[in-house]
Description:
single chain; mainly alpha; two-stranded antiparallel ribbon
Amino acid sequence: MxxxxxxxxxxxxxxxxxxxxxxxxxxxxxxxxxxxxxIVKVIAVAVLRSIWNNRNDAIFNSKKSGKEECFRxxxxxxxxxxxxxxxxNMPDLNCWKCNSFYNT
Length: 104
């Protein structure tokens, strides 16, 4: 994955990622701004957790969630984590949903 200077994803590679440590290492190498690096790491963890929660809901609660619901969970989970646990200056939730790198 490549991100331009404004924080927009411009390319997705088809490389295989072995674990979250590789995602964190990629973020450390590609983002000199500490806040943006932190945001990428939080989003990566939120993606994994959202997929895990959707899987558990399907298996244990017979509840099927679509990819839109999974994506919404990632947005909300990453927003709340960053706004409550870090010193990143956060926009409101609606701005976050439109652009996660807004004013960081």
